């Protein structure tokens, strides 16, 4: 019976939907996290009578066809790349992006990854690194005797050096953006890598050419709305229950048919 299979695909789809929602809720407090949404499409149809088919020699046509669906499939779990709320941390090397753009990070294997998580710090050599110890790209080193490190909205890093009256420029933070940022691949640790779907990175200076500004001593919170996620969770649960009811009804119908044959 087709209803069993169609309902089973519906239950599988809603199970995946709940997994996506639960991951969003789990990352409610993850810095720079971008929530996911599950998207679905209906499966192929079996056309028993096609609309427009001739029904007589006078070329009368069916105004509507007879097609039976096969259920549903999950097509993607796309990221929603909207801006998250900025929160003050009072930490010198915490940086938030207000607008478009990703920080660039050099991975241990030499690849470049991208992140909205601006919770940076210094390593033993004074280099600006992520919480996992990955270097910011381009690399910026803060001298041991530097004081009063400031990061401007345009990404210029400066510090006061003893014996110098003017602040010393330490480097310029550059950012990257993508034609299709939804196409980026998440690799964990709040990092993304480019794909064929995202296109190559477009690099530039904060505050220019469509890039957002930087805000020192702030971090971007996850763009997860707890109320919306709970509402979606309830809707997914109800959809799962209804599909399970269809499975039960189809099973009862098959059981009745089987008893008729035995009788």
Automatic annotation (TrEMBL):
Flagellar basal body rod protein N-terminal domain sequence ranges: 4-34
Coiled-coil portions: none
Any single Gene Ontology cellular-component annotation: bacterial-type flagellum basal body, distal rod
Pfam families in the cross-refs: Flg_bb_rod, Flg_bbr_C, LlgE_F_G_D1
Database matches in SUPFAM superfamilies: Flagellar hook protein flgE
UniProt xrefs under InterPro entries: Flag_bb_rod_N, Flagellar_basal_body_rod_CS, Flagellar_FlgE/F/G, Flg_bb/hook_C_dom, FlgE/F/G-like, FlgG_G_neg, LlgE_F_G-like_D1
Annotated ranges, domain Flagellar hook protein FlgE/F/G-like D1: 96-159
Keyword terms, alphabetized: Bacterial flagellum, Cell projection, Cilium, Flagellum
Domain Flagellar basal-body/hook protein C-terminal: 215-260
Subunit structure, interactors included: The basal body constitutes a major portion of the flagellar organelle and consists of four rings (L,P,S, and M) mounted on a central rod. The rod consists of about 26 subunits of FlgG in the distal portion, and FlgB, FlgC and FlgF are thought to build up the proximal portion of the rod with about 6 subunits each.
NCBIfam families: FlgEFG_subfam, flgG_G_neg
Family, as annotated: Belongs to the flagella basal body rod proteins family.
UniProt-recorded name of the protein: Flagellar basal-body rod protein FlgG
Source species of the chain: Methylobacterium terrae
């Amino acid at each position: 019976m087709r209803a069993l299979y169609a309902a089973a695909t519906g239950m599988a789809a809603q199970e995946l939907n709940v997994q996506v929602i639960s991951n969003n809720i789990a990352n409610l407090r993850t810095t720079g996290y971008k929530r996911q949404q599950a998207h679905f499409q209906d499966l192929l149809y079996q056309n028993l009578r096609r609309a427009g088919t001739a029904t007589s020699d006078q070329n009368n046509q069916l105004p509507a066809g007879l097609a039976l669906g096969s259920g549903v499939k999950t097509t993607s779990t796309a990221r929603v790349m909207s801006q998250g709320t900025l929160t003050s941390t009072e930490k010198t090397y915490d940086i938030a992006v207000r607008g478009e753009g990703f920080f660039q990070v050099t991975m241990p294997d030499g690849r470049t990854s991208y992140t909205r998580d601006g919770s940076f710090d210094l390593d033993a050599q004074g280099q600006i690194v992520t919480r996992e110890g990955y270097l910011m790209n381009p690399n910026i080193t803060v001298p041991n005797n530097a004081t009063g490190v400031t990061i401007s909205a345009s990404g210029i890093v400066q510090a006061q050096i003893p014996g110098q009256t003017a602040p010393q420029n330490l480097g310029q933070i550059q950012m990257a953006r993508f034609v299709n940022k939804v196409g980026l691949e998440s690799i964990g640790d709040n990092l993304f890598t480019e794909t064929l779907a995202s296109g190559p990175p477009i690099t530039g200076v904060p505050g220019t050419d469509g890039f957002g500004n930087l805000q020192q001593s702030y971090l971007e919170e996850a763009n997860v709305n707890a109320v919306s996620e709970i509402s979606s969770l309830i809707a997914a649960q109800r959809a799962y229950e209804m599909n399970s009811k269809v499975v039960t009804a189809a099973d009862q119908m098959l059981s009745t048919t089987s008893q008729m044959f035995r009788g």
